[in-house]
Amino acid sequence: MNSHFQAVDLQKAYRLLNHGPTVLVSASHEGVDNVMAAAWACALDFDPPKVTVVLDKTARTRQLVEGSGWFVIQVPTAAQAQLTHQVGTRSLFDQPDKLANIGVQLARVEGHAAPLVEGCSAWLMCRVIDEPHNQTTYDLFIGEVVAAWADDRVFRDGHWAYEHADPQWRSLHYVAGGHFYAIGEPVVVDPQS
Amino acid sequence: MNSHFQAVDLQKAYRLLNHGPTVLVSASHEGVDNVMAAAWACALDFDPPKVTVVLDKTARTRQLVEGSGWFVIQVPTAAQAQLTHQVGTRSLFDQPDKLANIGVQLARVEGHAAPLVEGCSAWLMCRVIDEPHNQTTYDLFIGEVVAAWADDRVFRDGHWAYEHADPQWRSLHYVAGGHFYAIGEPVVVDPQS
C-alpha cells in the first residue's frame, strides 16, 4: 500500500459502510486467495465494531472465510466498477486464474493473513463471530472489525470527502445487471433541529 | 397514497434496498404508531425476499415491532432529509407528539396493520422472523417481505430511475451528525465482460 493508506479509529469504522456501498469481500485459506462482490453488507455495531455480510453457499470465498475465520470488507471505487462486476460474476471454481485475469492486485498488512484489494477506498479486517444457525439458514456472517484503514484522498478525519475527491473515488451502489449508482452530493441538515 | 403508489414484484423487492439507502422503520402496536431512522438495514434474500435491520433496545419502535411482529422499511427521499434526521434523533418516550411535531404523515394499505410513511419512494412490508438470539445479542431483526410498493416517478419496471427524476427523489445515505449523501449518477459496465 502507499502513503495514503491510513489507519481508521475503530470507533469510526462503521462510517466506512454507513452509506451502504457495494463492497468486495476477500479471504485466504491454505494458500488460496479469492475476492467476491457483495451488495448485502452492513454495519451491525459501533464498539466493538461489527458487520454483517451475506455469503452465498456457492461462493468459493465463503469456503475461505469459513476455513480461515477471517475476511476483509473493502469499499471499491467508481474506477473499479468493471473489476467489481467481474469478481462478482466469475467464480474461482471455473476460473483458477480469476484474480489474475481480472487484474485484481492483493496486498497484506503485517499481522493479518487476509488479503486486501489494492485501489479500494477503505478496508475492514474482520474476524468471523461463529453463528452456525445464521450462516446455515440465512448465509449471514457476522464479523468483528479488528482493524480498519482508508485512503486519505477520500476518507480523512473520520469522514468521507467524496465531494472533494476525484469522481473516480466515489463508492458504488449496485442495482442489477451491470448497473450501479455512484454516491452523489452531500445533503446536510441542522443536527439540532 | 396517490396514483403513483404501485406494487413492486416481490422478486424485485431486493432492488429497493440494494443500493444501501438509509431507511425509515415504522411500526404500530396497541394503537401506538412510531417511525425511526435506520442506516443499518440490508437485503438478506431474494425469494422469498428477506431483510435485516438493526433496532436498538432504546428505540420505542423496537417495542412496537416486537409487540406486533410487523414493521415497514421505507426509503426516504432527499426532500425528507430533515424529517429523516428528526425521526432518528427524537424519541417517542420523550415526545408523545413526535410524529405530529415532525410532520410525519402515515398511511395504511388495506390488509396490513403497519403504517407507511407518506412521501417516501419505496416501502417494504415485513413480517418478523423470530430470532431471539439475534435480537437479544445483536439487536438484529430479520423480516420477510410480504408486499412491496414504490412511487413510479422514481422506481418503475423493476429499476430505480433516479437519473430521470427530480433530484428531490434521490435516496439518502447517512454518514453522521446530520450529514448524508444523496445517491448519485449511474455507472454502467458491460454485464458480459
From TrEMBL, chains A, B:
One of its GO terms (molecular function) is FMN binding. Belongs to the flavoredoxin family. This is Flavin reductase like domain-containing protein. SMART domains: Flavin_Reduct. Keywords: Flavoprotein. SUPFAM superfamilies: FMN-binding split barrel (SSF50475). Coiled coil: none annotated. It comes from the Bacteria. InterPro entries: Flavin_Rdtase-like_dom, Flavoredoxin, Split_barrel_FMN-bd. The lineage of its organism: Bacteria, Pseudomonadati, Pseudomonadota, Gammaproteobacteria, Pseudomonadales. Residues 15-162 form the Flavin reductase like domain. It comes from Pseudomonas inefficax. Its cofactor is FMN.
